Amino acid sequence: MAHALFNKEAKTTSPLPVPTGPAGQARENQLFNEVRDVRRNVEINIGKACNNRCVFCIDGLPKKEDRSYMSWEDMKGELDFWHASGSRSVGFLGGEPTTYPKIVEAVAYARDLGFTRIALATNATKLRLEHFTDKLLEAGLSRVTISMHGHTADLEERLTRVPGVYEKKVHAIKYLIAKRKEGFLADGVSVNIVVNGWNYRSIPQMMRFFYDEVGLDDIRMNFIRPEGYAEGDPELTPLYTKVVPYLMKALVLSEKHWTKNTFTFGGVPLCVLPPALRSNEYLLKKHLGEYRDLSTDCSVRQEGEGFGIEEVRDGRSRFNWQDRKRFDLKWAPEACRACSKVELCEGVWKGYVDIHGEAEFHPV
Ligand code: SF4
Asked: Please, which residues have CB within 8 angstroms of residue 181's CB and are 6 or more apart in sequence?
């Protein structure tokens, strides 16, 4: 039978995205990595309203109904459901989760249920308000992942299209780092950079900025997913072959100069990486995001049937993120049919192939 990856239009029969193992145990759809946090994770999307307007946002301009926030009853129901299903890690995302009116209550509710890792994926603009950040920390927030994509005000504000946002984010990050030193945020603070056509040449400078000037110890770089505003945009979506030399420079710098820090990158197929890295399991497990990511389910507002593996019930779509990428959002180029890495490599964002085709990919 053909691998599901090779069917671009596949509408797989979804297994319920409910974990079957004991609480906290990851699903079996990722390769083993002893460094991975084994807690099972769920990401709850609170709605798509946002106070930044990133040029590459996958949501583009959301419909009015998608910009409304989920009700408090729905939030409690989701947290109850996922905790009962075995998840012990929860992330809140959007849109922008700090604008959700019940975000502090949601964090506290998750903590009281027994989630041990409670995270926000945020642009951090609102976290500059220290009293607000303090409330989240007191409620049990244990990790923050900050979306920031430039090391200068000019670059960050061109990408997010919000004047003044750079200073607010830097202030917020420094405050979070200070609170971590006080004993909060046990699961860390990281920056999540979307690598795109406007910033990839600055990758080494961004590392220096976030590690040495801002004081972070964890950087994640994700290759742009060309959907929403960036769909069909070759300027925002550079060729992998142009970006990889910069990522490799970053990897070498992290191995030589920032040895105590974490540097990972994701969304890059293995065949565009240098052979010396592809064959080095130690480095792959350390730096390849897909090897490190927690086993993650998602819950997002959804009207109508949805597509692919998602399970839609009561106005929410639920799916496993690793399966979603592999079966619905990414595409296996023709080269994958003869490739030995097909079980590890997730393939390529479909939107990338629509822009640049398949010429860069080859079996390894
Ligand atoms: S040929 Fe396909 S499976 Fe192999 S590394 Fe490239 S994209 Fe991944």
From this structure: none
Helix H or strand E segment including 121 = strand 117-122
**Going from the N-terminus, what domains does the chain have, and what CATH number goes with each?**
41-320 (3.20.20.70)
337-347 confidence digits (pLDDT tens): 999 988 888 89
DSSP string, 288-333: BHHHHSPPEEEEEE--S---TT-EEETTEEEEEHHHHIIIIIEE--
Rounded to 10 degrees, the C-alpha dihedral 203/207/210/215 comes to 180
Q: What is the pLDDT of residues 302-336, one digit of tens each?
A: 888 888 989 999 899 999 999 999 899 999 999 99
Tell me the per-residue pLDDT of 150-182, one tens digit each, with 9 for 90 and over. Answer: 999 999 999 999 999 999 999 999 999 999 999
Q: Residues lining ligand 1, judged by CB closer than 6 Å?
A: 269-271, 332-333, 335-336, 339, 341-342, 345, 347-348, 361, 363-364
Which residues have CB under 8 Å from 110's CB, separation 6+? Answer: 79, 83, 90, 118, 140
ω before 304 within 30° of 0 (cis)?
no
**Probe residue for ligand 1, chosen from 3, 31, 361, 362 as the CB with the greatest number of ligand atoms within 8 Å:** 361
Is 190 within 8 Å of 221 (Cβ atoms)?
Answer: no
Highest-confidence segment of 6-15, 42-51, 161-170, 302-311 = 161-170
Looking from the CA of residue 364, the nearest atom of ligand 1 is 4
State how far the Cα of 61 lies from the Cα of 45, in Å rounded to an integer: 16
Confidence of residue 27 (pLDDT cuts 50, 70, 90): low
- From the CA atom positions of the chain, what is the Rg in Å? 20
pLDDT at 1: 31
Smallest CA-to-CA distance from 216 within 253, 263, 167, 152 is with 263
